[in-house]
Amino acid sequence: MSNKPLVYFLCTGNSCRSQIADGFLKALGGDKYEVKSAGLEAHGLNPRAVQVMREAGFDISSHHSDIIDPEVLNRASYVVTLCGHADEHCPVIMNPDVVKWHWGFDDPAKATGTEEEIMAQFRHVRDCIKARIEKFLNEDH
Q: Which of 20, 42, 67, 125 has the fewest CB neighbours in a 10 Å radius?
């Protein structure tokens, strides 16, 4: 167990948005934060999320999709939901010291159209998440 504050990213399936956030914070702030991600369900790591992160110079290919662990949830310093469904259905956090935030992003896995249009949506969400992670790292907590 780490002495660093734990940031726990939650999403519905722990396949795209939470994996992207996890990858960015580990790479950009892993010296300051312990980082984990999970979902209400485990949908598996989305290959398009892996691809767009690789394009940005970040490797999340070794990540795996996990279901929310109540023990991790209650020892987290920050719980960040990345979709409305996870925000509405997040398990009860028993630890009153946990700070819970909601950073809502569209689900790129639900994008439709050509492969290029779908990938453009994945890239857009990736870039929005990266910007939010950078903002988090520059804030005082």
A: 67
11 part of the active site = yes
- Classify residue 1: in a domain, yes or no: no
**Tens of pLDDT, residues 96-108:** 999 999 999 999 9
Residue 77 within any structural domain of the chain: yes
Catalytic residue among 6, 83, 125, 133: 83
What is the residue range of 33's domain? 6-138
Q: How many domains does the chain have?
A: 1
Residue 128 bears catalytic tag = no
Residue 16 falls in the annotated catalytic set? no
Helices (H) and strands (E) in the chain, counts: 5, 4
The per-residue pLDDT for range 1-31, each reduced to its tens digit, is 568 999 999 999 999 999 999 999 999 999 9
The model scores a pTM over 0.90: yes
